[in-house]
Structure formats: C-alpha cells, structure tokens
Amino acid sequence: MKRFFLFPLLMIAFGCYDVERNCSEFKTGKFKFNYTIDGIEKTGRFIRTETLNIDYYENTTDTSSVRWINDCEFILKKLNPKTNAEKEAIHMKILSTTGASSYTFEYKLAVDKPNLPQRIEKGVAHKIN
Known about the structure:
Helix content is 11%, strand content 50%. This is DNA topoisomerase IV.
C-alpha cells in the first residue's frame, strides 16, 4: 500500500522538472567550446551577432550567416564555403542553459538527406564576456 502512495508523489516531484532555456541571453556575445579531433581535445572560440557567427579554431577564421528561427534555434550558413560539404546549412538548437554562463546545444544538417543517416552532435558553449 505504501508503494501505491509513493509512486504518485514521485511523479509529482520529478514530473514537474523543467529544463532552463533562457536562450535570449546567448543570441549574441563571445563564446568558447571544447571539441575533439583525432582524440585530442581543443578549444575553439566564436563571436555571434544577430546576423553573423565568426569562428576561430586551429589558427583559422570562418564566418557564417545566422538566421534565427526562434529564441532557441538558428541556421548557420558559411559565407565563403571552400567545399561542397561546407555549403550545407547547419541547424543549431539550444537545449538548455545554465544561468548566463553556458548552454548545451545540438547541431545537425539543416536539410535531411534521404540517402544519409541523420548525424546529431552535442556540445557545451561558455559565454566569455
């Protein structure tokens, strides 16, 4: 009988958990993130304005246009792609935020390709300004 009353109590306590998503804090600013290439962890930086995203990684600078879908989702498209793969737009989605200091995101190709499996990557960006 105790289990019968405990289950609804647990559902009430944990069912109301809501992930913090204050995405407007992260629309613009300077950010850093860690990424791994060939087992080596590296740090990249980027600056985002309302319309541009400028990436700095491995002594390279890359600029993309930013088109916001809503407060937590946007599309990145490279301004000067060097390969066909770089011509593909990227869909970015902020999954959760931690105050005004960092956010967890996921990204994937903006257009589904029926002959390729959808690859979704996740990461964490930290605001540095």
